Amino acid sequence: MPRAFWSVPMVTLGEFDALEGAKATCVSEYYAYQEVDIFGPHLLRLSAVCGKTFLSARVISGPLCPEYKERMKAVVARVLASNESNEESVLMLDPLAGGIAGMSFCLEDILARGEKRRFCIILTHPQSAELVRQWPLVSLFLNILLEEWSTATKKRLALEYSIFPDLERCREEARKRSMRSLMCLISQNTESEEEAFKRVHSFFERFFPALFGVEPLRVTDSVLEPTSVNDIKQRLEVELPLVNIVGIDLDSPPGEKGCIAVGNGRILAVGEKFVVKPLAVWLLEFMQKHIGGLQETEMLLSALLSGIQILVYGCDSVQCANLALSLSQILPRPLRRLAVFAEEYLMPYENRIISFSERLCQRQQLT
């Protein structure tokens, strides 16, 4: 199954490099956006990231997968061509991406020609009308982020002026290799690039649900009061350190058969092979193979709809998980208390549907 490009809101960071031209560097995607639809898919899928990533409750951040990177280079070039400073922004429509909001900005880098480097931050949203509606808040949040980045790079510039012994020679040498990354420039104090990226990821973990979640913030007036801006800044200062982040290598993901449990019974598919079979297909196959299958099917559906706990186990844990996910799909999301690849039994008040891990299934077969 091909990746579902543009199906969720995403933020891509881009840069104009004098040697390489426009390029897209990394992306944060709001994978939990698929849960906005109360009867939407329970098996969440990734769109754009690959390799070593940071994962939290609703957002995943990391390098762009090659096919997405090629598509985004053209978008980055369009945004950078449309903007000349962080005082300007651009809203565009795209037949594939839906809505595109871009904001270009410059950051100080002592090693760059003119001590300025051009970057852009691009938000794509599958529902262009929603992006336009939320644009005042989107631009507010992004300007808060860019203000923080600008402050960090100015402090770095002042420090490096005092510590670089031969500035012109350093600049000449810098032109022979790739420039420092954005994360290096915006790192604060003794932060590593990885720690800076975690901080950026934490921002988007709060940004996406606040603006495009089930109950998003709304602007009542066209002009935001300074008190509102200060409230948002204070809220971010409190919430960002609380974001729980896990590092995951998507090239060799943890979990089972390309699936990762991301909490509250939610499953994130990091591979492209896991396809959930519709419940109707499961039931038809069962009734064809078993005498009295209709009566047993009625019992199963009655238990499912009345809240009786259902345990799914067998010799193939992947098929068990597939059936458990199919059963959960007919329930509204608030009732989907589901666990797949479980390592132990869970009480009915914790989970209504449980499928067990391959290791546990094999152990039960031996006993």
From TrEMBL:
Gene Ontology cellular-component annotations: cytosol
One Pfam family matching this protein: Folliculin
Top-rank taxon: Eukaryota
GO molecular function annotation: GTPase activator activity
Domain (Folliculin/SMCR8 longin) ranges: 63-187
Gene Ontology biological-process entries: positive regulation of TORC1 signaling
Alphabetical list of PANTHER family matching this protein: FOLLICULIN, FOLLICULIN FAMILY MEMBER
Record's protein name: Folliculin/SMCR8 longin domain-containing protein
